[in-house]
Amino acid sequence: MIDHVDGAVIPTGFDVPVEPLRRAAHFSGDPGCIAEARTFAARFLDRLRTEWCATIGQPAEEKVLLVVSELVTNADRHSNGPYILDLEGTDDSVSVCVYDSSSALPRRFPKDPERIGRHGLEIVHALAAEVVVERVPVGKRVRAVMRLGAD
Asked: Which of 2, 72, 89, 150 is deepest in the core (most CB within 10 A)?
């Protein structure tokens, strides 16, 4: 990083690229896994605040935790095996990825306030700046990118 003070360029010594913070956790699908995933994500956001000096307000944190809940719940309900929650973040965004063993891609249903259930991807799309669903060799990956400054 280079500071500009009264037109002078002063090297600060922080010119080295920094890798995003990344953490992953494996969940078996046993009862309580969804709550454990939310706790894991909350701790990740705390580390992001500390290590990246990220400003993460309460609304942004709640959105990230809701996206984690929705994606992990879908993996828990619709796959026949364990799943992985992979989080990556910087000071301005968090990527929430969930890998599971099912190759069936999730369906995003049209908005219907009278439908009970199946609103998960609708919620994720409403909260995330980007959502990508793709097959991977062992199943699928659902990735949602959340902007932290969008409170």
From this structure: 72
CA distance 126 to 3: 38
- Measured in whole angstroms, the distance separating CA 10 from the mean position of its chain's CA atoms is 36
Tokens linked to 26: 């494996």
The one-digit pLDDT tens for each residue of the chain (151 residues) are: 445 555 555 566 555 457 899 999 999 988 899 999 999 999 999 999 999 889 999 999 999 999 999 999 999 988 877 999 999 999 999 999 999 999 999 888 777 888 887 788 999 999 999 999 999 998 999 999 999 975 5
Strand 2-5 to strand 21-27: parallel, antiparallel, or no bridges (unpaired)? unpaired
- Asked if residue 133 lies in contact with residue 103, where contact means CB atoms within 8 angstroms, the answer is no
Terminal alpha carbon distance of the chain = 27
Joined tokens for residue 106: 């999730």
Q: Is 28 left (phi over 0), alpha (psi -120 to 50) or beta?
A: alpha
SS3 43: helix
